[in-house]
Each structure stands twice: as structure tokens, then as C-alpha cells.
Specification:
The complex is a heterotrimer of chains A (380), B (157) and C (290).
Chain A (H helix, E strand, L loop, with lengths): L5 E5 H13 L3 E8 L2 E6 L10 E6 L2 E6 L16 H4 L3 E8 L6 E4 L7 E6 L1 H15 L6 H9 L1 E5 L10 H4 L11 E6 L6 E6 L2 H10 L6 H17 L9 H6 L6 H8 L5 H5 L6 E7 L5 E7 L9 E2 L2 E2 L4 H20 L9 H4 L7 H10 L12
Helix pairs in contact in A: 9-11
Chain B lengths: L1 H10 L8 H8 L2 E6 L4 E3 L7 E7 L2 E7 L3 E8 L4 E2 L13 E4 L3 E7 H10 L1 H26 L2 H4 L5
Antiparallel strand pairs in B: 1-8, 2-7, 3-6, 3-8, 4-5, 4-7
Chain C lengths: L24 E12 L2 E8 L12 E6 L3 E6 L10 E6 L3 H7 L6 E8 L12 E7 L4 H11 L7 E7 L8 H9 L3 E6 L9 E2 L16 E6 L2 H13 L7 E4 L15 E2 L2 E2 H4 L2 E3 L3 H7 L4
Parallel strand pairs in C: 7-8, 7-11, 8-9, 9-10, 11-12
Antiparallel strand pairs in C: 1-2, 1-6, 2-5, 3-4, 3-6, 12-15, 13-14
The chains are: A alpha+beta (380), B alpha+beta (157), C alpha/beta (290).
Chain lengths: 380, 157, 290
């Protein structure tokens, strides 16, 4: 542990952090309670943070509860990932004016202020790392994402209260924050009082830490953090066995389990909307009566029938093929395409599936009968 | 004459590699024929009395379609077998076969050949093993065309 | 904040596109040529900055402003001065608008994207081209280049179409023949008077004297046609890695970042469209995606 780059903060430290980020010109977003869920929202003071609010999650279910716990970050993950701030659900790519031989293309430039995330989870940080590879490291990178991401400040908060739907330990993305953050916070509420360990993970993080002040982290606080992370890991009841998983799914594309899950799946696309790594987008051109046009980009979902449309119809017309596309992409073909998994184990797709389909359970079912295939009629 | 025909038979892909005595059995039922451009080699509805081992020139299989005149449904060329209806069933031709250019064939008398096949099942089986794959590949090619690949296929839209 | 990457490659500081980002470059329709009842070749010249040079087999994303954008392979020949040719079949709103854009109209162009036919490696190979329908368009530039190469390899072009009226580039075929290529056309059905072949394009394979060990095959057309043609070529002794196919899925971004063109482990706009048939691709085409 690079203790020189870590300090112990009191609860006022969070207030100072929020003010300091605003002073540096960031638009600061943190977890706020809205519409019965904890979602990213503007944070102007630590009073905006969800003190004593907890999320109770299970497949197909999400509820908030409150008690007198002083913790600000004693919850797991909400339905909206931070992805939306860097890769907006909808954006105008360019506009045109004029018609016929006089068309002018006007690229739409992003003028949003740099964004600071306070309270992202380690799994979400890992998700940003995946999007960096997909959207940022392409031969033709996404300009909007790349610009916003390069300017973003990420303060991650380690997990003290994983949900029953979480499986980040299986994916190696949590509950501790390893690297890739500007600042990592650990919220401590033990006998020593309500404090935060703050660690810097970048040069920007260093300078923010230096301005924050605080005091050296005593060994007891490090011990408390270690115990907290140990408890979180132990509380992580859900598992995804990743041993040889990509190859397992690649060789089981005709497994009867895909028919089984297709009987339950509504093909609604909720899982892709809540997923912090789903990156698919569609381009739509629209015009008005003056002849001005614009191209809009919006999130798309592989569960949408039009997603795989080619001349002649959709390539994946059945729910079976679309669920299989989604699950095998996350856990198998993502490795081929981007040399990383497409899943960070945040469990959102399990919680927010209206019928509680659990990707870990589906993968386990296929592993349990590896090689089984649907009976096919003989071919003439 | 028979000897020369036997060589032509043995040299045709349909019978290539068969023992010389088999080629001679076929040659005993065969003779050379020649057709001018546009001449019919076989006619729809006519008895399927002989088939042709095509040696040179190309042939179009045509079906009459009211309103459209003749429609070419397949073309065949040198080294191919023209005529399958002599084997089974009604033994009547299902299409016309028209010479697209001067055509030379070895024409084989079907009844003569089938008589030898009945009398000599080893020869008959060898004959079937050569004709059946031609039928299979024509069937498969026809199935592919049923897909109307280029009409509504997904190609470079 | 200007949407630039660290190395500034995506756009200039004032946001002008270089043609590979999400912003199209304006191109003007220089001329149009009708190929068949529903196929038009449109030649485009840059209004300002030009896109990077293309290689045969690559594609551009073409925009009909206000209507939409589609992937269209270049049908012209790399290195040829003058406008860039794209041959477009009218199958939907965007391809209709592109094909009907009058001379002088402005269209948007992004790219070039994707992999190419790799004709530079083929000097001394026998090359067998199999095209179905409009699939001849992405091969046209490669055939032009191959028909003019200095080398010992032969060139054979097999073309399948629905009927004789649907055949494209028949004038080019005469040129290819004049340069020593064998060009055979076959259609699904024809009226008498058609002097070419009638039958599926794969049946023409049996009429060729193929030297499998020195042949490379380039395939483009309906996926079913390519699947059966490739299988037949393997039966004839061609190594699957020496069969190259051009695959199509829903391509929207061209950059491998929108997800639509996935085929199992492949992002076809990035890893394709031209891929060796061997290994992964043969397995993928054999799978039921539906």
C-alpha cells in the first residue's frame, strides 16, 4: 500500500471533496435517491448523498430501505450506471443545413463540462476500463466517449454492503478498488467513528488528495478496511465459475438451456439498458420541413428485433438467439473481440430482469450438462 | 465401330474408370449422334428411349410456359449426362433439350442397356452408382435455385 | 471540449471530419450509370478533403442526408484517378435515395473501412472469382487489378444471377476476357436466346480444370451461395484458408464500436468484410443464428 498517497478523512472530508471538485470546474455527480432508486445525480454537498439508505436486491426485485446508519455508501449498485454520462443514451452526431448540392455538414461538438464521479463502485470502474477498450481503443475511436472519459474524474468507493445479486469477486473487479481510479475511498463506521480512507490513483488524484488535507492513515484504520473488505467478500454469495467459461459457451451454442431461458425471457432489453458495459448504438437520420437534417445516435439493444436487420430480415429473429447472443457476447465472444470479459459482475441484469433471469445460473446450467444438444430432426 | 464407341464411352466422365468389359456392354447399346444448332435432342412428352453422353456443344433444357414461350431451366455441356427419365417411372421426357450450338453425343439405347442391367445385377449396380450421383447433384442444385438467392438475398445492400 | 483523441486523429480542433470518424465527408455525384433495372453505379468526387485511398474489397458508409447511411463496397479500381465508383442496388429507403441522387447532389462518405481482397499477394496464383448477383460489385476492382497483373496465374470469373437482365458489368466482362480471363455467367432461368449457362453457379465448378494447390478463390454473393460454393471448393481440394469470402451483417458505424455487425467472435466491419473461409468462418456460417 502506498501509504504516502493515502489520508484519513472525517465526514467533512467528503464535503471538502465535493467543493474542491466544483472549484476545479467539474460537474460533480454522485449517488442520489430518485424515483425510488440510487442513481447518479448532481451532488452539491454531502447532504445530497444517501445517508442511511440501503438497497435490497434479488432477481427481479429492488427496494430501498432507510435506518439510522450514518453511512453514505452502504448500498450496492443502482439501475443507472455511470456509463450514461460518458456515452449518453442519445446524442446528436452532426447536423446539416442546405439541400441538394448545397449541403453543409456541421459536426456537433461536445461542450459539456468535465464530469466527476463520486461514489462509483469498483465494478463500475472496471466497466469503464472495458468501455475504454471498446469505444476508446478502436482504430476509429468514439470521439464523444473519448473526450468525456479523458476529462473525467473518478472517485470510487469500495463496497461495504454487496447485494445478493453481486458477483464481482468471480469477475475479479471488487469489492476492493485496485487501479484505474483518480481517488479511492473506503467508508469506515467502526469504533473509531465515521471516517474515510482516501487513496490517490493518478496524478490528478494526487493533487486532489494534497488539497484535501486529512491525516495519515493509522494502522487501525487499515485493519478496519481489511476486515470490511473481507466481510464484503464473504457476503458475496453469488458465484460465476469463469474457469474455461468462454470456451464452454462457444461449444454449447445448441444447448437446450437456450430454449429453456427463451421460454422465460421477454426480450425486453432491460438487461442491456442497466448493463455498465453494453455499448451498442444505432444511428438514425431525421429531417425537418426546412430540409435541415441531423444524425442521432442512441443506445441500441441486441434484444431489439431490428438490431440484426439485414436486407431480407433480422438475422436473429428468435428470443433464443437474441438471449444467446447477449450472454455469449458478455462471457465469451467479448474476449475474442476486445481481449477482456464483457461482464463485471455488478448483478444489475439479474436485479432488473422483470422475470429474474440470472446469467450466473444460466451459465452454471450449461456447465452442468456441457455438450448436451437439442435433438434435431434428421436432414434430408 | 463398336470398339471406337467403347473408347468414347470409357472416356466419358460418367463411365470413366469402369472395367473395359462394362464400357463395352454400354457401347453395345450406343452410337454416335450429331445435332445442328437449335435442333431438339429430346422433346417433352416423347418416350425416353435413349440418353446422351454429351461430347461437344452445349444443350438447353426448356419447358414451355404459356405466355412466356420457352423457358430455359438448365444448360448442360461436354462431359455431362443428358436424360434421366429413361431410368424409372413413366419414361417420358419432362423437358425439351435444344442444341445451343453444334452438338456431338454418344446416344445410348435405354431399353438395350436396362435389359443388360436386369440380366447382370453387378453391371446394373455399377450403372446405378454412376447415374444416381448425377441425379443427386441436379436435385441439390435445383433446391438452391428454389431459394431465389439473388431475388431477395442479403447481398451488399 | 473538442472531440479529439490523444493523437488528434479523429477530428481537427474545429471539428472537421477526416472521414473515418462519425462525421461524413461531403462528396458530389459526378456521374451515374444504370446497370440493371434496380442497380445503379454512382461515381463520387470529394468537395473538399478526400477520404484515404481504398483497397479492393473495402467499403464506405454512404449517407443520403436526412434519409440514412448504409455500407456500400467500392466497385471501382484502386489507384484509378477520378471519382470513386459505388454500385448500389435499390433495396430500401437509403439505397433508393443514394441510387437516385442526381448528378451534382451531395452525399456523405465515411471510410474506407474493413479488410480487402489482398490481391497484391496473388501475382502467381490462379485466381477463381465466384460472384452472385450484386456481389460482383465488391469484386470488380479486384478483378480489374488481377486481369492486369504481371504474373503466371490464371484468372477465372464465375458469375451467377437471377436472369440475364440482372447481370451487371457485362461490358467489363468483355474487357476481362480480352485480357485472357475466363468469364462464365449462369442464371437461374432464361428465355431462349440466352447463350450463357442456366443453373446454380456452383455447377460451373465441375466444368473447370482447377489446380487446387495453386488456386485462391474470392467469393462474394448471397451467404448461402458462398457457403455451398466454399464447401464445393474444399471438396475439389482447395485449402479453406485459400478461400476468401466477403460477409455482410448490419453495419452502422464502420469502426467496430456500435455492435451491430457481430458474427460470433467477429465484428465484420472491423475484422471483415473479407475473411478467410477456413476455421472460424466456416464454423460460423454453418451455425443456425436464427
Amino acid at each position: 500500500m502506498a501509504e504516502a498517497r493515502a489520508v484519513l478523512l472525517g465526514t467533512d472530508g467528503i464535503e471538502r471533496l465535493v467543493g474542491l471538485l466544483a472549484g476545479r470546474g467539474y460537474r460533480t455527480l454522485g449517488p442520489v435517491v430518485a424515483d425510488g432508486a440510487i442513481v447518479p445525480g448532481p451532488v452539491n454537498s454531502s447532504a445530497d448523498l444517501p445517508r442511511g439508505v440501503h438497497d435490497d436486491q434479488s432477481p427481479g426485485s429492488y427496494r430501498l430501505s432507510r435506518d439510522d446508519d450514518p453511512s453514505l455508501f452502504a448500498w450496492a449498485v443502482g439501475p443507472r450506471s455511470w456509463k450514461a454520462e460518458l456515452f449518453p443514451p442519445g446524442a446528436v452526431v452532426f447536423r446539416t443545413s442546405g439541400t441538394g448540392s448545397e449541403v453543409q455538414v456541421v459536426p456537433v461538438l461536445d461542450d459539456a463540462a468535465p464530469v466527476a464521479f463520486v461514489g462509483a463502485r469498483p465494478c463500475e470502474l472496471a466497466a469503464l476500463g472495458i468501455l475504454d477498450r471498446v469505444l476508446g481503443a478502436s482504430e476509429h475511436p468514439d470521439p464523444l466517449y473519448s473526450a468525456r472519459r479523458a476529462a473525467a474524474f473518478v472517485a470510487v468507493v469500495e463496497c461495504a454492503r454487496p447485494a445478493p445479486t453481486c458477483f464481482c469477486t468471480s469477475m475479479g473487479t471488487g469489492p476492493a478498488a485496485g487501479a484505474g481510479f483518480d481517488l479511492a475511498l473506503t467508508e469506515l463506521v467502526g469504533d473509531g467513528g465515521h471516517r474515510f480512507i482516501a487513496r490517490a490513483g493518478s496524478s490528478v488524484g494526487d493533487s486532489v488528495l494534497a488539497e484535501l488535507g486529512g491525516r495519515p492513515v493509522p494502522p487501525a484504520a487499515w485493519d478496519e478496511r481489511a476486515e470490511l473488505l473481507e466481510r464484503s467478500e464473504a457476503a458475496m454469495s453469488r458465484r460465476l465459475d469463469t474457469d474455461g467459461l468462454a470456451a464452454l459457451l462457444a461449444r454449447n451454442l445448441e444447448h437446450p438451456r437456450w430454449d429453456d431461458v427463451a421460454e422465460r425471457c421477454l426480450s425486453c432489453g432491460n438487461c442491456t439498458l442497466v448493463c455498465p458495459t453494453c455499448f451498442c448504438s444505432a444511428l438514425d437520420d431525421v429531417s425537418d420541413l426546412s430540409g435541415a437534417t441531423e444524425r442521432r445516435r442512441r443506445w441500441d439493444s441486441c434484444f431489439d428485433l431490428g438490431y440484426s436487420e439485414v436486407h431480407g430480415g433480422p438475422v436473429r429473429s428468435s428470443t433464443r438467439s437474441r438471449y444467446r447472443q447477449w450472454a455469449t457476447h458478455k462471457l465469451s465472444t467479448w474476449f475474442d473481440q476486445f481481449q477482456t470479459a464483457g461482464c463485471v459482475g455488478c448483478g444489475r441484469c439479474i436485479t432488473w430482469c422483470p422475470v429474474g433471469i440470472d446469467i450466473t445460473e444460466e451459465a452454471a446450467a450449461i456447465r452442468a450438462s456441457d455438450g448436451e444438444t437439442v435433438r434435431k430432426d434428421g436432414q434430408a | 465401330m463398336i470398339e471406337a464407341i467403347a473408347e468414347l464411352v470409357a472416356d466419358h466422365p460418367l463411365f470413366r474408370g469402369l472395367p473395359a468389359d462394362v464400357a463395352e456392354l454400354v457401347a453395345g447399346c450406343a452410337r454416335n449422334e450429331a445435332f445442328a444448332t437449335d435442333e431438339l435432342l429430346i422433346a417433352e412428352g416423347a418416350p425416353a428411349e435413349k440418353f446422351h453422353l454429351l461430347r461437344r456443344g452445349r444443350v438447353a433444357l426448356e419447358i414451355r410456359k404459356p405466355g412466356s414461350g420457352q423457358l430455359v431451366v438448365e444448360t448442360l455441356g461436354p462431359d455431362e449426362l443428358l436424360g434421366l427419365s429413361w431410368l424409372f417411372g413413366s419414361k417420358r421426357w419432362h423437358t425439351d433439350a435444344r442444341a445451343l450450338e453444334p452438338v456431338g453425343t454418344v446416344a445410348v439405347d435405354a431399353e438395350c442397356l436396362l435389359r443388360k442391367a436386369e440380366a447382370d445385377p453387378v453391371f446394373g449396380y455399377a450403372l446405378m452408382k454412376r447415374v444416381a450421383p448425377v441425379m443427386l447433384s441436379r436435385l441439390q442444385a435445383t433446391r438452391l435455385r428454389l431459394l431465389d438467392l439473388y431475388g431477395h438475398g442479403a447481398d451488399n445492400s | 471540449m473538442a472531440p479529439t483523441t490523444a493523437d488528434g486523429a479523429v477530428a481537427t480542433a474545429d471539428g472537421r471530419a477526416d472521414g473515418t470518424s462519425l462525421w461524413p465527408l461531403p462528396y458530389r455525384v459526378a456521374w451515374r450509370r444504370r446497370e440493371t433495372a434496380d442497380v445503379v453505379t454512382v461515381a463520387l468526387e470529394p468537395v473538399g478533403a478526400a477520404a484515404a485511398p481504398y483497397r479492393a474489397g473495402q467499403f464506405h458508409m454512404l449517407t443520403a442526408f436526412g434519409v440514412g447511411e448504409v455500407a456500400i463496397s467500392v466497385s471501382g479500381t484502386p489507384g484509378t484517378p477520378g471519382p470513386i465508383e459505388h454500385t448500389i442496388r435499390d433495396v430500401g429507403a437509403v439505397s433508393h435515395a443514394l441510387g437516385h441522387a442526381p448528378v451534382g447532389a451531395l452525399l456523405g462518405l465515411r471510410g474506407p473501412f474493413g479488410t480487402d481482397w489482398g490481391v497484391d499477394d496473388l501475382a502467381d496464383r490462379d485466381v477463381l472469382v465466384i460472384a452472385g448477383g450484386i456481389g460482383l460489385a465488391p469484386l470488380r476492382g479486384a478483378i480489374h487489378q488481377l486481369s492486369q497483373r504481371r504474373g503466371t496465374g490464371s484468372l477465372t470469373v464465375l458469375v451467377g444471377a437471377r436472369d440475364p437482365d440482372q447481370l451487371v458489368f457485362t461490358a467489363d466482362m468483355e474487357q476481362w476476357r480480352a485480357r485472357g480471363a475466363t468469364v462464365l455467367c449462369t442464371v437461374d432461368a432464361a428465355a431462349p436466346g440466352w447463350r450463357g449457362e442456366v443453373g446454380i453457379v456452383t455447377t460451373l465448378l465441375t466444368r473447370l480444370a482447377l489446380a487446387p494447390e495453386r488456386t485462391v478463390a474470392l467469393l462474394c454473393g448471397p451467404e448461402v451461395m458462398m457457403r455451398f460454393a466454399a464447401a464445393d471448393l474444399v471438396d475439389l481440394g482447395l485449402h479453406p484458408d485459400r478461400i476468401r469470402v466477403s460477409l455482410e451483417r448490419n453495419m452502422q458505424c464502420g469502426a467496430g464500436i456500435c455492435g451491430h455487425c457481430q458474427l460470433g467472435p467477429l465484428l465484420l466491419c472491423r475484422d471483415g468484410p473479407v475473411l478467410p473461409y477456413g476455421g472460424t468462418v466456416a464454423a460460423l456460417l454453418g451455425q443456425q443464428e436464427r
